Structure to design on (279 residues):
């Protein structure tokens, strides 16, 4: 569902194509984006992004997230893989394709304001919501959380992609990221479209019944990572004691299980023997 039917072929192309990469193998962006915590971080990012009325209007009016949610996820995951791990030519091609699509995404929001997906201000909001979510998810559920230098490095790495997409001055340190999110807060609010999207993502995803309990844990873990100011507009619950214990533990078990499944069999024994590494 995440990689799509062309997942194996894309993986081969992205990881083994010759040529320079935007990011060296030791860069934090590679560490974070290769980890299973991205599943939780991605869902949290979608919820946070929906709080900007103009960004949400673009999604509601131009994205087929209800009719083809897995297709949208597959395209997003492929973009992240290409820009993070792919050769420079493929990374640039992926960015150019997104910029081309953005030229068709514009209109008038329900509140009467004009929106344009190519607007650098909206691009930056989408970007910082992703960076904040991916980084937080990795710090809470990743295999080897980053130190301060690593966290700043991750924000700086993501700024390379944001700049290529058209964000003039994206944050490049963790502190700048926090300040930028704070600066956007007066613009954020819960709209009917945002709450509708949250209900779809959290309560009625197109999944077979056996998979829904597992997805429920994933959804609860993503919601628990949202700050209170982001939950109230979406009418999401807030229960810190429960989230700090039961939800956090369930999230660690789930993400650890996904990581184990995603790890090639020949590396399982290495993970189990390596001190300080979560399975």
């Amino acid at each position: 569902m995440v990689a799509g039917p062309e997942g194996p072929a894309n993986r081969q192309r992205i990881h083994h194509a010759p040529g320079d990469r935007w990011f060296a193998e030791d860069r934090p962006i590679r560490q974070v984006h290769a980890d299973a915590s991205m599943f939780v971080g991605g869902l949290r990012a979608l919820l946070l992004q929906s709080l900007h009325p103009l960004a949400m209007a673009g999604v509601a009016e131009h994205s087929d997230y209800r009719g083809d949610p897995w297709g949208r996820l597959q395209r997003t995951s492929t973009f992240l893989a290409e820009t993070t791990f792919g050769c420079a030519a493929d990374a640039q091609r992926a960015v150019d394709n997104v910029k081309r699509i953005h030229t068709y995404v514009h209109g008038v929001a329900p509140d009467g304001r004009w929106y344009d997906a190519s607007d650098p201000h909206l691009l930056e909001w989408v970007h910082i919501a992703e960076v904040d979510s991916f980084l937080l998810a990795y710090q809470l559920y990743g295999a080897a959380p980053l130190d301060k230098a690593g966290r700043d490095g991750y924000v700086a790495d993501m700024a390379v992609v944001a700049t290529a997409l058209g964000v003039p001055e994206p944050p490049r340190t963790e502190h700048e990221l926090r300040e930028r999110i704070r600066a956007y807060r007066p613009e954020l609010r819960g709209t009917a479209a945002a709450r509708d999207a949250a209900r779809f993502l959290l309560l009625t995803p197109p999944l077979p019944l056996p998979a829904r309990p597992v997805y429920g844990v994933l959804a609860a873990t993503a919601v628990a990572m949202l700050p209170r100011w982001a939950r109230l507009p979406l009418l999401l619950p807030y229960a810190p004691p429960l989230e700090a214990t039961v939800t956090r533990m369930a999230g660690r078990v789930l993400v650890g299980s996904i990581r184990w499944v995603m790890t090639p069999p020949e590396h399982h024994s290495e993970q189990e023997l390596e001190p300080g590494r979560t399975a």
Summary: The chain has one domain: 7-264.
